[in-house]
Amino acid sequence: MRVTHYAALAALILSPLPAAAQNAKPTDPQIAHIAYTAGQIDIDAAKQALKKSKNKEVRAFAENMVKDHGAVNKQALSLVKKLKVTPQDNPTSQALTKQAATKRAEFAKLSGAAFDKAYVANEVAYHKTVDSALETTLIPSASNAELKSLLQTGLKIFQGHEQHAEHVDAALK
Amino acid sequence: MQPGRSVFIAALLCGIVCAVPARAETIKIEMKDLVVTPAEVTAKVGDTIVWENRDVFAHTATATDKSFDVMLPPKKSGSLTVKKAGTFDYFCKFHPNMKAKLIVTP
Fold it and tell me: What is the pTM assigned to this prediction?
């Protein structure tokens, strides 16, 4: 159980998340798609947690994820509309979505404290991965100033969530 | 009594009565794009601190020592009247990377 857990975590961290990031610079429509997808994944993960968890802190964290990422994505949608940009699907978004689906299926089998721990540990790891993608690839690659600025706010939000997840993770131990 | 003298006494009385309680102030702190401005504020006991949340995200002003915990819904403000002196580090519970300091003098 423990071994699988760490193995899964290691796989998540080491897996080649930013496929586009490693090769060519992603375009603005791709960046918008990646950012939106990353937010939506976290909303879906939080919704699963709200169905399964009874832990007060875990639920409060999950509720905040739904609200914050919902708010960021709402801003992202109005920005792409304003800029007349159509978010473009790409290998990074697809890899993120696939990974997330695997995680959700894995977590669906867990319950109680085991679920809480797995969800929160994954939230720490997931936010770390997204933070690093934002910092090293998405923000530097964004050419539109407004998109860049939204991503920068997004980074601060994600970093805040990472620390919040770490606090909840510490409280669960 | 000479008129000049009564004015003097009145001024003296007012000097004693009026000067004693310094008026409590309202200090505004802004939270925008996850940044707290100013990050450090000095207030006096009795002053009111108003945090204005300009973000679309909920924030809190939560003292590290738990002496206060003010909820700040999106685009709303929250306030606190400071009652005791001290240095209070505070942060946002939802985004603990938002940190600031409140110094309260007697």
Answer: 0.80
What are the tokens at B43? Answer: 């207030």
Predicted pLDDT of residue A173: 84
Phi and psi (nearest 5°) for A89?
-65, 150
Distance of CA A130 to the CA centre of its chain: 6
Q: Give residue B21's pLDDT.
A: 56
Q: Which of B56, B74, B95 sits opposite A160 (nearest CB)?
A: B95
The distance of A101 to chain B (nearest Cα, Å) reads 26
ipTM score here? 0.79
Across the interface, whether the CB atoms of A163 and B97 are under 8 A apart is answered yes
Structure tokens at A112: 């109680």
- Give CA–CA dist B89/B40, Å, rounded: 9
Give the Cα separation of A26 and A134 in Å (integer). 12
β-partners of residue A127 are: none
* Interface contact A163-B96, CB threshold 8 A: yes
Residue A146 dihedral angles phi and psi, to the nearest 5°: -70, -35
Amino acid residing at A22: Q
Amino acid at A37: T
Which chain A residues are within 8 Å of B31, Cβ to Cβ? none
Question: What token pair was written down for A120?
Answer: 């929160």
Alpha-helical segments (H) within chain B: 3-19
Q: Is B96 in the A-facing interface, judged by CB distances under 8 Å? A: yes
CB contact under 8 A, A156 and B96: no
